[in-house]
Amino acid sequence: MSDQQHVYPVREDFAAKAWADKATYQAMYQRSLDDPEGFWAEQAKRLDWFTSPTKIKHTVFDTHNVDIRWFEDGTLNASVNCLDRHLETRGDQPAIIWEGDDPKDSKTLTYRQLHERTCQLANALKSLGVARGDTVTLYMPMIPEAAMAMLACARIGAIHSVVFGGFSPDALAQRVKDAGSKVVITADESVRGGKNVPLKDNVDAALTREGTDVAEKVLVVQRTGGDIEWQDGRDVWYHDLVDQQSSDCPAEPMGAEDPLFILYTSGSTGTPKGLKHTTGGYLLHAAMTHQYVFDYQDGEIYWCTADVGWVTGHSYIVYGPLANGAISLMFEGVPSYPTNGRMGEVVDKHKVNILYTAPTAVRALMAHGDNVMDSSKRDSLRLLGSVGEPINPEAWEWFYRVIGNEQCPIVDTWWQTETGGIMIAPLPGATDLKPGSATLPFFGVQPALVDNEGNLLEGATEGNLVILDSWPGQARSIWKNHERFLQTYFTTYKGMYFTGDGCRRDEDGYYWITGRVDDVLNVSGHRMGTAEIESSLVAHDAVAEAAVVGFPHDIKGQGIYIYVTLADGVEPSDELKKELTQWVRKDIGPIASPDVIQWAPGLPKTRSGKIMRRILRKIAANECDGLGDTSTLADPSVVEELIEHRAIK
Ligand code: PRX
């Protein structure tokens, strides 16, 4: 079926009220390319600056000298933009609506309250010795304190590094150490799906690891009152310290290029990378995309179901919506608790207008059948959004028909931790939709497709997705490792930012992301390096060698398929599979749980010893007939053996 048969044209009633219709999008996009200085100077006015920028864009994408600066002589503070400037006009409007894991738990914080508590927390951080330029690690549940902690850091010029609460103590330790965080903010426990997760215990364990003694203080929110260990002199109760602070905390004037946060993400090699995002460009990109892509209108209730531990939570629960004075719903729980109808029930309870979620959540609901949404009406919804992985057309149609009652456009938003904000997505009043396509670039974004040699490809074609010029929200570097930043993103294709994604462009210029072309997995929208999982496995005594690949998974998008070669003398057993599964969960976190483990007496390697992952991916996907060229294999019989003992038949 051709793409044309799947077009959902822009609805006229939508276009009439939207921030941008077709003509506006086209004119603004064109201007953003023709006159980036003028365009972005104008757009920068949507932020409040202490000193307005006069230097707008200084960006160099040279392989040896990547230098990205936006608005470099401007000064501002992100927390002022997200809080103070709204006090006069919307101080008593909700800023955050919090919905707890338990459907009986919810509360609302107005902009005034959020401002007051953020200032108190900022003063508390100062009293713990945190100063401008210091880093603070957040390992927190989805509670308003997480947003306050981010904003409090921003207020005093400290750099936050949020670590997803599902990561293990080792993963947390690695990130505390790399960031050099003086203070860790956490909670006694988090609550998800009726279960308590021992965050403070994990912090305790993390801080026994080598190199984490930089962390002098642990600030602990009491979320559940569960039993925890206490280290006098290091641990401080949040309520003891924060409640007594003054709510007056002048904001630090930050340079536009001063770091706002570090966020770790996985790559195809090595340890996770701490992407460094700066203040001015990032905030502008987050705010502007939030307004245009979600067509956010004053007073609407907007819900992004992500966790603040990921970039989506940073840009589209906290910074983008709050910079726009929006009402941002924050959900502590999971969509399947207490029942599979929860997502719709939360929409009805809070009259949500805009719902931004992940394809994996849609597919999980879809697997239960249409009735899963019967407990809710969802008639407050006006717009739906998708992020994190390609959304297959079936899931798109189901999202549209069942969740959105055929009333809501869907914005499929492609972007990355590195990009800071949305890069390719429809604007709902401007872009005709095609299920499965992220459609067209946002203002200032110049996507292109290249072949493996880096030649630009024209017209309808498929290739590697690159971005030709900088945009304001782009990560500036990798924390303490600019060389790695250059290597990872700017050496594959000279003079271009390489996304790591494959992509198709159709005859209308629409982009269709096909998934990663490197050794990065996307499991339920969570990004993971195969190398990280492999190095965890080979650290187990029973394992001689391991190779990890993704395979198509109905709900998760990709599942984790592991080939393990056991050490001499070790016998394979189901117990050992369980042990290895636990090992990886403990080492990295439950998100890295293997779906399939196959014992592999040998792995397919080239004569120079390189594992041929292409073959392993095919076997995992059960595409054993099309293995392609195997002539470079050192020992072809290895492949026969793996096919014969394939773990999923
Ligand atoms: O492969 C793309 C996929 O997620 C990767 C980025 O992951 P992360 O940095 O964790 O950020 C996720 C949230 C922005 C991308 O390289 N991806 C993200 N959104 C989409 C997507 N793939 C297809 N369609 C999307 N809408």
The oligomerization state is single chain
Bound compounds: adenosine-5'-monophosphate-propyl ester
Distance between the termini: 30 Å
Order of neighbouring strands in the sheet with most strands: 12-11-8-6-7-14-15-24
Largest sheet descriptor: 8 strands, mixed
Report the sheet-strand fraction: 15-25%
Summing up helix and strand content along with how strands pair, one would put the structural category as alpha/beta
Rounded average pLDDT: 96
CATH topology of the largest domain: Rossmann fold
The proportion of residues forming helix, as a percent range, comes to: 25-40%
In CATH terms, the superfamily of the largest domain is ANL, N-terminal domain
Question: Can you tell me the residue ranges where pLDDT is under 50 for at least 5 consecutive residues?
Answer: none
Specify the overall morphology: globular
In DSSP terms (H or I, runs of 4 or more residues), the helix count works out at: 19
Radius of gyration: 24 Å
CATH top level label of the largest domain: Alpha Beta
Q: What's the architecture of the largest domain, going by CATH?
A: 3-Layer(aba) Sandwich
- Number of strand elements: 31
Q: How many domains in all?
A: 2
Write structural notes for this entry:
There is one protein chain. With about 650 residues, this protein is an alpha/beta fold. The protein has 2 domains: about 10-335 and about 410-505, 3-Layer(aba) Sandwich (Rossmann fold), CATH 3.40.50; about 525-645, GMP Synthetase, Chain A, domain 3 (2-Layer Sandwich). It has 19 helices and 31 strands. The strands form 8 sheets. It has an 8-stranded mixed β-sheet, sandwiched between helices. Strands 5-4-17-16-18-19-20 form a 7-stranded mixed β-sheet, sandwiched between helices. Helix 13 (about 360-365) crosses helix 14 (about 395-405). The chain is globular, with a radius of gyration of 24 Å. It starts with 11 loop residues before the first helix and ends in a 5-residue tail after the last helix. The structure holds adenosine-5'-monophosphate-propyl ester. Adenosine-5'-monophosphate-propyl ester binds near residues 390, 412 and 417. Adenosine-5'-monophosphate-propyl ester (PRX) binds next to helix 11, strand 20, strand 25 and strand 26. InterPro entries: Ac_CoA_lig, ACAS_N, AMP-bd_C, AMP-bd_C_sf, AMP-binding_CS, AMP-dep_synth/lig_dom, ANL_N_sf.
